[in-house]
Protein backbone atom coordinates (compact mmCIF):
# COMPACT_ATOMS: atom_id res chain seq x y z
CA UNK A 1 0.00 0.00 0.00
CA UNK A 2 2.83 2.38 0.92
CA UNK A 3 4.63 1.61 -2.36
CA UNK A 4 1.51 2.35 -4.41
CA UNK A 5 1.07 5.68 -2.61
CA UNK A 6 4.72 6.63 -3.18
CA UNK A 7 4.57 5.59 -6.83
CA UNK A 8 1.37 7.59 -7.38
CA UNK A 9 2.78 10.65 -5.61
CA UNK A 10 5.98 10.41 -7.66
CA UNK A 11 4.00 10.13 -10.90
CA UNK A 12 1.89 13.19 -10.01
CA UNK A 13 5.00 15.23 -9.20
CA UNK A 14 6.60 14.19 -12.49
CA UNK A 15 3.45 15.09 -14.44
CA UNK A 16 3.24 18.49 -12.74
CA UNK A 17 6.91 19.18 -13.49
CA UNK A 18 6.35 18.56 -17.23
CA UNK A 19 3.69 21.27 -17.62
CA UNK A 20 5.03 24.50 -19.09
CA UNK A 21 5.00 27.30 -16.50
CA UNK A 22 2.38 30.04 -16.71
CA UNK A 23 3.63 33.59 -16.97
CA UNK A 24 3.05 35.28 -13.62
CA UNK A 25 6.23 37.35 -13.68
CA UNK A 26 9.13 37.45 -16.13
CA UNK A 27 12.23 39.41 -15.23
CA UNK A 28 15.66 39.41 -16.78
CA UNK A 29 18.43 42.01 -16.53
CA UNK A 30 21.52 42.16 -18.73
CA UNK A 31 24.81 43.86 -18.00
CA UNK A 32 25.96 46.69 -20.26
CA UNK A 33 29.53 45.85 -21.36
CA UNK A 34 32.01 48.16 -19.64
CA UNK A 35 29.06 50.17 -18.30
CA UNK A 36 29.08 52.13 -21.57
CA UNK A 37 26.03 51.49 -23.72
CA UNK A 38 26.99 51.73 -27.39
CA UNK A 39 24.45 52.03 -30.20
CA UNK A 40 25.37 48.64 -31.59
CA UNK A 41 24.68 46.78 -28.31
CA UNK A 42 20.99 45.86 -28.45
CA UNK A 43 20.00 43.60 -25.54
CA UNK A 44 17.10 41.31 -26.36
CA UNK A 45 14.68 39.33 -24.24
CA UNK A 46 12.58 36.35 -25.33
CA UNK A 47 9.35 35.68 -23.45
CA UNK A 48 7.41 32.45 -23.98
CA UNK A 49 3.63 32.95 -23.85
CA UNK A 50 1.54 29.83 -23.30
CA UNK A 51 -2.04 29.60 -24.65
CA UNK A 52 -3.50 30.13 -21.15
CA UNK A 53 -1.38 33.31 -20.72
CA UNK A 54 -3.39 35.09 -23.45
CA UNK A 55 -6.36 35.37 -21.04
CA UNK A 56 -4.53 37.87 -18.82
CA UNK A 57 -3.39 41.50 -18.78
CA UNK A 58 0.24 42.39 -18.08
CA UNK A 59 2.28 45.37 -16.95
CA UNK A 60 5.52 45.78 -18.89
CA UNK A 61 8.47 47.58 -17.27
CA UNK A 62 12.03 48.49 -18.19
CA UNK A 63 14.65 48.13 -15.48
CA UNK A 64 17.63 50.51 -15.60
CA UNK A 65 20.60 50.47 -13.24
CA UNK A 66 23.19 53.27 -13.37
CA UNK A 67 25.76 55.05 -11.25
CA UNK A 68 25.37 58.51 -9.73
CA UNK A 69 27.75 59.78 -12.42
CA UNK A 70 25.16 59.15 -15.18
CA UNK A 71 25.04 62.57 -16.89
CA UNK A 72 21.33 62.83 -17.81
CA UNK A 73 17.97 62.89 -16.03
CA UNK A 74 16.41 60.51 -18.55
CA UNK A 75 17.19 57.89 -21.15
CA UNK A 76 15.58 57.43 -24.55
CA UNK A 77 15.18 53.87 -25.86
CA UNK A 78 14.04 52.32 -29.10
CA UNK A 79 12.03 49.28 -28.04
CA UNK A 80 11.38 46.65 -30.67
CA UNK A 81 8.67 44.04 -30.19
CA UNK A 82 8.45 40.98 -32.41
CA UNK A 83 5.37 38.78 -32.08
CA UNK A 84 5.36 35.03 -32.73
CA UNK A 85 5.40 34.26 -36.44
CA UNK A 86 6.29 37.82 -37.48
CA UNK A 87 9.50 38.42 -39.43
CA UNK A 88 9.69 42.11 -38.51
CA UNK A 89 9.37 43.94 -35.21
CA UNK A 90 7.28 46.93 -34.21
CA UNK A 91 9.48 49.74 -32.89
CA UNK A 92 8.61 52.60 -30.55
CA UNK A 93 10.73 55.38 -29.09
CA UNK A 94 10.25 55.73 -25.33
CA UNK A 95 11.57 58.28 -22.83
CA UNK A 96 12.35 56.89 -19.39
CA UNK A 97 12.62 59.61 -16.71
CA UNK A 98 15.32 58.81 -14.15
CA UNK A 99 15.31 62.00 -12.04
CA UNK A 100 12.78 64.62 -10.96
CA UNK A 101 12.96 68.31 -11.96
CA UNK A 102 15.36 69.06 -9.10
CA UNK A 103 17.81 66.40 -10.32
CA UNK A 104 17.07 63.89 -7.53
CA UNK A 105 17.18 60.30 -8.81
CA UNK A 106 13.72 58.75 -8.72
CA UNK A 107 14.85 55.13 -8.36
CA UNK A 108 16.07 53.31 -5.30
CA UNK A 109 19.71 53.81 -4.47
CA UNK A 110 22.50 52.17 -2.55
CA UNK A 111 25.72 54.18 -2.29
CA UNK A 112 26.20 55.57 -5.81
CA UNK A 113 24.12 52.98 -7.69
CA UNK A 114 20.48 53.61 -8.63
CA UNK A 115 17.85 51.19 -9.88
CA UNK A 116 14.65 52.13 -11.69
CA UNK A 117 11.61 50.08 -12.68
CA UNK A 118 9.65 52.15 -15.18
CA UNK A 119 6.30 51.11 -16.62
CA UNK A 120 6.19 51.41 -20.40
CA UNK A 121 2.83 49.69 -20.85
CA UNK A 122 0.08 48.85 -18.38
CA UNK A 123 -2.64 46.27 -18.93
CA UNK A 124 -0.99 44.96 -22.11
CA UNK A 125 -2.22 41.83 -23.84
CA UNK A 126 -0.50 39.00 -25.67
CA UNK A 127 -2.97 37.97 -28.34
CA UNK A 128 -1.34 34.75 -29.47
CA UNK A 129 0.84 32.14 -27.81
CA UNK A 130 4.49 31.74 -28.75
CA UNK A 131 7.78 33.53 -28.22
CA UNK A 132 7.78 37.32 -28.12
CA UNK A 133 11.11 39.10 -28.58
CA UNK A 134 11.83 42.51 -27.05
CA UNK A 135 14.93 44.46 -28.13
CA UNK A 136 16.30 47.60 -26.45
CA UNK A 137 18.53 50.14 -28.16
CA UNK A 138 19.77 53.29 -26.45
CA UNK A 139 18.69 56.34 -28.46
CA UNK A 140 20.55 59.22 -26.81
CA UNK A 141 22.85 61.67 -28.63
CA UNK A 142 25.91 60.43 -26.75
CA UNK A 143 27.53 57.21 -27.96
CA UNK A 144 28.56 55.29 -26.00
CA UNK A 145 26.29 56.27 -23.14
CA UNK A 146 28.40 56.16 -19.95
CA UNK A 147 27.58 54.86 -16.46
CA UNK A 148 24.68 52.57 -17.44
CA UNK A 149 25.27 49.27 -15.68
CA UNK A 150 22.26 47.09 -16.54
CA UNK A 151 19.04 47.13 -18.50
CA UNK A 152 16.22 44.67 -18.16
CA UNK A 153 12.66 43.69 -18.90
CA UNK A 154 9.96 42.87 -16.37
CA UNK A 155 6.49 41.57 -17.24
CA UNK A 156 4.01 41.01 -14.44
CA UNK A 157 0.45 39.73 -14.44
CA UNK A 158 -2.06 42.58 -13.89
CA UNK A 159 -5.44 40.82 -14.01
CA UNK A 160 -7.75 39.01 -16.38
CA UNK A 161 -9.02 40.26 -19.74
CA UNK A 162 -12.66 41.29 -19.94
List key phrases describing it.
globular, 162 residues, four-stranded antiparallel beta sheet, mainly beta, disordered N terminus, five-stranded antiparallel beta sheet, Jelly Rolls
Characterize the structure shown.
The strands form three sheets. Strands 1-11-4-8-7 form a five-stranded antiparallel beta sheet, with no helix packed on it. With 162 residues, the protein is mainly beta. The chain has one domain: Jelly Rolls. The protein is globular and about 45 Å long. The protein is built from one helix and eleven strands; from the N terminus they run αβββββββββββ. It comes from Chitinophaga hostae.
Can you summarize this structure?
With 162 residues, the protein is mainly beta. The protein has one helix at 2-18, and strands at residues 25-31, 36-37, 44-49, 56-67, 74-82, 90-97, 108-110, 113-124, 130-138, 145-146, 148-160. It has one domain (21-160): Jelly Rolls, CATH 2.60.120.
CATH architecture: Sandwich
Outline = globular
Largest sheet: 5 strands, antiparallel
Low-pLDDT sequence parts: 3-20
Number of helices: 1
Supply the number of structural domains: 1
Strand content: over 45%
Indicate the structural class: mainly beta
**What would CATH call the class?**
Mainly Beta
CATH topology description: Jelly Rolls
- Average predicted local confidence, pLDDT: 88
Question: Care to count the β-strands?
Answer: 11
Gyration radius from CA atoms, angstroms: 20 Å
Helix fraction, binned, reads: 10-25%
Strand arrangement in the largest pleated sheet: 1-11-4-8-7
Amino-to-carboxy terminus distance: 48 Å
| Topology pattern, helix = H, strand = E | HEEEEEEEEEEE
Organism: Chitinophaga hostae
Protein name: Gliding motility lipoprotein GldH
InterPro entries: Motility-assoc_lipoprot_GldH (IPR020018)
Keywords: Lipoprotein
Amino acid sequence: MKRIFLATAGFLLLAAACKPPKLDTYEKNLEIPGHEWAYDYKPSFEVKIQPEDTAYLYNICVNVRHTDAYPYSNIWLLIGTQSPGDSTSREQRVELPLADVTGKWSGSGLDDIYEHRIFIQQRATFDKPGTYKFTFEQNMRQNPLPHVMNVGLRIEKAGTRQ
